[in-house]
Amino acid sequence: MATLLIVKTGDAFAEVISRHGDFEELFQQQLAPALDEKTSLWVFDAQRETTLPSLAGLSGIVITGSHSMVSDSEPWSEALKPWLQQALAEDVPLLGVCYGHQLMAAAFGGRSDYHPAGRESGTLEVDLTDAGRNDPLLGSLPPRFRAHLTHAQAVVEKPAEAQVLACNSHDPHQALRYGPRQWSVQFHPEFTAPVMRAYLERQRTALSDQGDDPEKLLADVTDTPHASSLLRRFAELV
Q1: Which residue numbers are catalytic?
Q2: What is the pLDDT of residue 130?
Q3: Does the pTM exceed 0.90?
Q4: Nearest 5°: phi and psi at 46?
């Protein structure tokens, strides 16, 4: 039996976990219905487990978001970089999300750090590039779609060989492709509208301090079926 591995890189806020589930559970809820009977889901907690899983037998890898920062270069995070490089070299399908997006870009020769314009949070529009419209994973999405976002860091320099698949006015690197079956996205396809609202409630002060309107951001939260479909599409491809 093949295994689709979820690499858990952090924990959600306590109130999110109690009401909606932790990061890995949000992914499981989206991925499980798309898997066939020959593929199982397995979770590896990168912050708490020290032995990295063997790549043999993995049908794909999904890397979650985190409240940690890639630029802090924590030992558990740095240990993932050569493992991801090996996965890319062996053409293991990869999908990084938020922290996973920034970690993959840093592992493959780019740089991730604090975004100079500050935090991006809310249900916001994302545009596919020409490459994105023709991509086997993102090409199934509309040219412009809404997605849930919450991040202070971003991919500030993409790897030289990476293709930009999606962007918006805040971030030119909303989605990247590194190889035939290796992608990462800054937005959160695993988030639901209630989870997005919970994050905005937590960030009220920080968002106000940088000139955003938390009430408007909360009012603009909607379901994001197109962005969410990305996880099912990834499961189908691998």
Answers
A1: 98, 188, 190
A2: 98
A3: yes
A4: -70, -25
